[in-house]
Design a protein that fits this description.
single chain; about 350 residues; alpha/beta; TIM Barrel; eight-stranded parallel beta barrel; 11 helices; about 35% helix; globular
């Protein structure tokens, strides 16, 4: 069905098409019959979920349709990025399709309704599945570190985990939090704030795909020292343009989709060695099939997320990936998806 109407959908501006998708999901009419597979069931924070396939932050920015996304078959959903105060983001146009490359470039700039309204949305419509909330600082803030703490206070106890987003290329100097000193200060402050507010929410950190491999050991050890539960590898790339075909490759912003798949997988492999199973990895970047998901798992990811893949494949993508993964597991003689983790 999606294949038949994709050309029509792609006539719309990408951000307009996204808004239409959100409106459609708000109707709570989900045109997908979900099939679950026993071999894909996993535990995430001691909760059993039907599969390890999540939707990345950026789709449900304002925490409006997460329950409809669960109905599409996603094992978990991450909403946001949420900032303390509402903000418009960057000027439009700010999302671009690169069809030949199966990619997107966005420079949205954390457009969202703010933490108070997002909190209201979640309290009015309690999640029916495992939920994560992605948080970040406002563009014009005078204290970015304090913005993370404000979001933690306002959104505490509304989700299973909170992701500290330090990796968007569309908020100026945000990636400076990858600097060891700044990263350590931020994570210490987060942990101290959790103690103050008596929070049991688990913390994930979303990192950039454009890190130097020489920096990975230092970053990894800071994450371990601060008892981070999950690391999301990775966000969009502000590089990786050389082999792209579409003219939109010259647009400023973060690149997502197939072109960053290999870069993401290499980072996952390296961090998997550093973490030694003490931090779980959520793999993101170029996931659109059973094979691309399989490559994330054997590289060391325990869970995966996607977004751009659904733009190109449609709302049935979880069924597609699940079916193809099930076939791969059967052909390999594996009984559960967890047997694949780090097996490359």
């Amino acid at each position: 069905m999606f294949e038949k109407i994709r050309s029509l959908i792609f006539k719309f501006d990408p951000e307009k098409a996204h808004d239409l998708a959100i409106h459609a999901l708000k109707t709570n009419i989900v045109p997908v019959k979900v099939k679950n597979y026993e071999c894909l069931k996993v535990k995430f924070l001691e909760k059993e979920i039907p599969n390890p396939i999540g939707i990345a932050a950026g789709f449900d920015k304002n925490a409006e349709v997460y329950n409809s996304l669960f109905k599409l078959g996603f094992g978990f959903v991450e909403v946001g990025t949420i900032t303390p105060e509402p903000q418009y983001g960057n000027l439009k146009p700010r999302v671009f399709r690169l069809e030949e490359d199966e990619a997107l470039i966005n420079r949205l700039g954390f457009n969202n309704i703010g933490s108070d309204k997002a909190s209201e949305n979640i309290q009015k419509n309690l999640p029916t599945g495992l939920l994560g909330i992605n948080i970040g600082p406002n563009k014009d803030t005078k204290n970015r570190l304090d913005d993370y703490l404000k979001c933690l206070r306002r959104l505490n106890n509304l989700s299973d985990y909170i992701t500290i987003n330090i990796s968007s290329p569309n908020t100026e100097n945000l990636r400076s939090f990858h600097n060891p000193k700044e990263l350590d200060e931020l994570l210490k402050a987060i942990n101290e704030e959790k103690i103050k507010i008596n929070s049991s929410v688990q913390i994930a950190v979303k990192i950039a795909p454009d890190l130097k491999f020489s920096d990975l050991d230092v970053i990894g050890n800071i994450l371990l020292k601060n008892h981070i539960k999950f690391v999301i590898i990775s966000n969009t790339s502000d590089g990786t343009r050389d082999n792209l075909k579409n003219i939109n490759k010259f647009e400023k912003g973060g690149l997502s989709g197939k072109p960053i798949e290999e870069k993401s997988n290499l980072l996952i492999k390296e961090f998997y060695k550093i973490f030694n199973n003490k931090i779980k990895i959520i793999g993101v970047g170029g996931v659109d099939s059973g094979k691309s998901a399989y490559d994330k798992f054997i590289s060391g990811a325990s869970y995966i997320q996607l977004y751009t893949g659904m733009v190109y494949q449609g709302p049935n993508i979880v069924n597609k990936i699940s079916s193809e993964l099930n076939d791969i597991l059967i052909s390999n003689g594996n009984k559960n998806i967890q047997e694949l983790i780090g097996s490359v």
